[in-house]
Amino acid sequence: MKLQVLRGFLVAAIVLLTSVSYAQMPQGWWSFDNASNLTAAVPGYGTDLVLTGTHTAVAGPSAGNGAISIGPGSYYTATHGIAPNGGGTKVNQYTLMFDFKVAQALGMWHNFFQTDPVVNANDGEYFIRSTTGAMGTLDLGYTTPFVVSDNTWYRLILSVENGNYFKAYIDGQLVFDHNVRPVDDARYSLASVIHFLGDDDGDDGLIEIAEIAIWNTPLSAAAIASLGAVGTVLPVELTSFAASQSSGNILLQWSTATELNNNGFEIQKKDQQTDWRVIGFVKGNGTTTNTQNYSFVDVPENTGTISYRLKQIDFNGNFAYSDVVEVEIAPTKFELLNNYPNPFNPSTIIAYNLPVDGFVTLKIYNSVGELVTELVNDYQSAGSYKQQFSSVSGGNNLASGIYFAELRANENVQRIKMMLVK
Fold first, then answer.
1. What are phi and psi of 140, to 5 degrees?
2. Which residues constitute the domain of residue 359?
3. Of 144, 148, 143, which is closest to residue 158 (Cα–Cα)?
4. 356/192 Cα distance (integer angstroms)
5. Cα separations (Å) of 36 from 44, 165, 199, 294, 374?
6. In 3-state terms, what secondary structure has residue 227?
7. Residues 209 and 298 in one domain
8. CA 193 to chain centre
9. Nearest C-alpha neighbor of 349 from the set 418, 271, 277
């Protein structure tokens, strides 16, 4: 984009630094997309799984989103690398995610994970119940009324803080608040390894998995909602996003800590005259675990508060928005703008610009010069302002006709003509 010199505006820059994460990135992440190495971790997110038994690559929920089918008696072992937390000697605060499908929800148990280091020494920690299709265990309680349907992909997320809550979400929505387990619970607190999809006696039914992830913290409801349904784990961790003035232009700068499948960033803008609109696109770096820095220059057309946000888009079309940053652009000349709409009924907006601080009055007169109302009588800072004038408020019930708005500030006076049509 060719840089242009901004004329006619004095830019008061507000730099907003923030820490934004499109989706809080997991400690361990396995997507099963690499057919030549199905147990491989997503680069930069943990270590590879260790398979005991057999598994098979199968079609996932969408193109490019692979899956595995793991049979009875087989399981994965993950060394998650999470330090003990939550006030105990084990991992008491964590989140687990499973994108899963079963061919037959009833008639067979299906196990998601087990915490006992010796797989055949204990039963699993979270099941699909064979008789109902609900999820849980006897001591956690089961997800009634939610039950699993046959041949349907789901995103199951378990957000756990032992001593406080154990919550189950499906496709971003809370489906059950399980019974609370104590800190360092023998069954639901994690040791240094966790077993996925294994049970104690090999009698579980077939289960297909497209994605597994583990976090070292219990994700909030808002964070889980942002993860959505199957296939929408977001690929970029945004660590900063700032807007500032540079040579009369607005300089946007942002950085990412990690990227996965990142096509790029759509830059969107909103000001007092327009809603959100696209003003540019910056190409991303695909998949990387290295810090990446980006920038974009915008030339403002209007005064007042201008808002910017990023729409991050991956190669599959999934997207997410960043937080919003703002820049205040102050005018350099005294100006009373034409009201809109005009003609109006029953109300209209009167906008004006102040280049410097001053005592301001904004008055409305009728066609014979009689004062109708005074909208502003106050000291105001330099900037852009809007006032609403209504023909039916403040004791007014005005007739159709011509009216005048008069703005005074620091010996400056301007007037505009307005038409009320009933």
1. -80, -30
2. 335-420
3. 143
4. 64
5. 18, 39, 26, 34, 76
6. helix
7. no
8. 31
9. 418
Query: What is the C-alpha separation between 32 and 49, in angstroms, rounded?
Result: 10
pLDDT of residue 198: 78
Question: How many whole angstroms from its chain centre is CA 264?
Answer: 16
State how far the Cα of 31 lies from the Cα of 409, in Å rounded to an integer.
64
Rounded Cα distance between 113 and 127, Å, is 8
Cis peptide before 355 (omega within 30 of 0): no
Which pLDDT tens digit goes with each residue over 366-394?
A: 999 999 999 999 999 888 888 999 988 76
Q: What residue type is assigned to position 59 of the chain? A: A
Token pair listed for 165: 């809550």
Q: Is the peptide bond before 341 cis (omega within 30 degrees of 0)?
A: yes
- In DSSP terms, which residues pair with 371 in a beta bridge? 365
Determine the residue type at 284. G
Strand partners for 134: none
Q: pLDDT of 203-241, one tens digit each? A: 678 899 999 999 999 998 888 887 888 876 555 778 889
Indicate the pairing of strand 325-331 with strand 9-12: antiparallel
Is-cis flag, bond preceding 145, omega within 30? yes
DSSP codes, 28-53 = EEE----TT-TTPPPTTSS---EEES
CA neighbor of 340 nearest in space, from 332, 348, 352: 348
Please tell me whether residues 171 and 95 are part of one structural domain.
yes
Among the candidates 330, 348, 365, a domain finishes at 330
pTM above 0.90, yes or no: no
Strands (E), 189-276: 193-196, 207-215, 236-246, 249-270
Q: For the chain, how many residues are written?
A: 422
Q: Are residues 142 and 199 in the same domain?
A: yes
Are 84 and 212 members of one domain? yes
CATH number at residue 112: 2.60.120.200
Q: Which two tokens stand for residue 238?
A: 């945004």
Q: Distance between CA atoms of 328 and 330, rounded to whole angstroms?
A: 6
Label residue 8 by pLDDT band (50, 70, 90).
Answer: very low
